[in-house]
Every structure is written in C-alpha cells, then in structure tokens.
Amino acid sequence: MEQTAYREMAATEQAHWWFLARRKIIADTIKSFNLPPHSKILEVGAGTGGNLKLLQRFGDLSAVEMDDYARAYATQVSGVGVEYGLLPNSLPTFPHNFQLICMFDVLEHVEKDFESLKVLATRLNPGGRILITVPAYPWMWTDHDAVLHHHRRYTRTTLSNVINRAGLQLDRLTNFNTLLFPAAIAARLVGNALGKKGSPGSSLPPRFVNSAFETIFKSEAPMLRRLNLPFGLSLMAVASNYA
C-alpha cells in the first residue's frame, strides 16, 4: 500500500466502523474454533497492528509485515515483536508451526496468491486453519483498489479455487458486510453519475454515520454464527490442512 494509506490506517483503525465491526466478526469466528490454550497463531500482513490485541486473546501470537513504518508502529502499540515478512518466499523462520494463520484483507495485495497459500499451508500444524478475508466482486474495482496496491478482488469461485489449488481444504466460505451492500452500490452509482473516480478510503466519517454503520455491520455477527451469507462486500474463508 501507499505510505499514506498505512498512516491513515494507523490513525483510524481503532475508531473506524469498518475495522471495529470486522474485528467483532473475526473474534466470533475464531471463538468458534475452540482453540486450545496457548495455541500458536500467526498474523500475516499485520499492517499497523489493529488486530494484534484481539488475536492475543486466543493464543501465543507472532506477526509479520512487509512495510517498515507499519511494522514499527504495530510493534510499538501492541508490544508484539512484528517481524519482516513478504509472501511467498521471504517469511521468517519460526521455531514452531501454527494452529491458526490469519490474513485479513492481505491476499489481494499479494501477486502470487496461490504460491503464498501453498507456502503458508506448510506452516500449519496438522489440523491447523487459515482464516482469510478479502474484498469481493471484481466489478467493484475502483481507483481506490489501485491506490491500495490490490492485484485483484475475489469471487467465491476464484477464492475457493486458489485455496484448493494450494492443497488446503475449504471448510467455510461466506460473504459478509452484506447489510450495507445496497448503500455501497448506491454510492457507486451516484459517484459514477457525478464523474467521481475511486471510492472513499478509511478516513473517519462523521460520528453519527460512523456509529450507525458500525451498528449495522456488527449486527451481522449473530447471523454469521449460524449461516453463510450469499452476498456482501467482503468474503471470508476458513481453510485447513485436514485434507
């Protein structure tokens, strides 16, 4: 990502509705795994560290990040020693494999997604899982994706294919950020009509808007505990090496 995007993320990810609600959904998903105490967990692409305190609740955490500024910031705010790592071939050597590897809106930044998942599969314990979130729908591509250095947005088919090709078993695939999907489409249509390019970044909206969007997005958490959602702005996949 551009340096400005990392700095904006650092400034807003503890207050922005999207980060707050996504962490709620991530936490619920990890709870459902019933990880043993002191499970080894790795976050790949930790960014500025917004998820690290959450992940520490579930086990012994390691983290990697390619960007120098983001890595230093994440280490400072979380106390986790975030190491340099770049997929697929420049991950650090750890003294153990992992019960859970997390990639939260990271895979779309990686040019070689299949090769990267194949490498990460070798870092799992038997029965270990990889938890992935990515942006959905290639037709929603905007200049904002380019600024964030995305290589792609995913469909259910492209995400499931790359997971299966990497030798992982796809245990769950669902959309999320579903309830705000109509508003996102409307905003896109209005932007196109007005000749605006791109889409808003992660800057903090007015307080009442931020609060309302957080409430709406978080309300999906109970639904996602029981079922997979058929459409939404993002995709979440759980894959394992049980196969």
TrEMBL record:
The keyword Ribonucleoprotein does not apply. The keyword Methyltransferase applies. The lineage of its organism: Bacteria, Pseudomonadati, Pseudomonadota, Alphaproteobacteria, Hyphomicrobiales. Pfam families: Methyltransf_23. It comes from Rhizobium setariae. Keywords: Methyltransferase, Transferase. This is Class I SAM-dependent methyltransferase. It comes from the Bacteria. Gene3D superfamilies: Vaccinia Virus protein VP39. GO terms for biological process: methylation. GO terms for molecular function: methyltransferase activity. InterPro entries: SAM-dependent_MTases_sf.
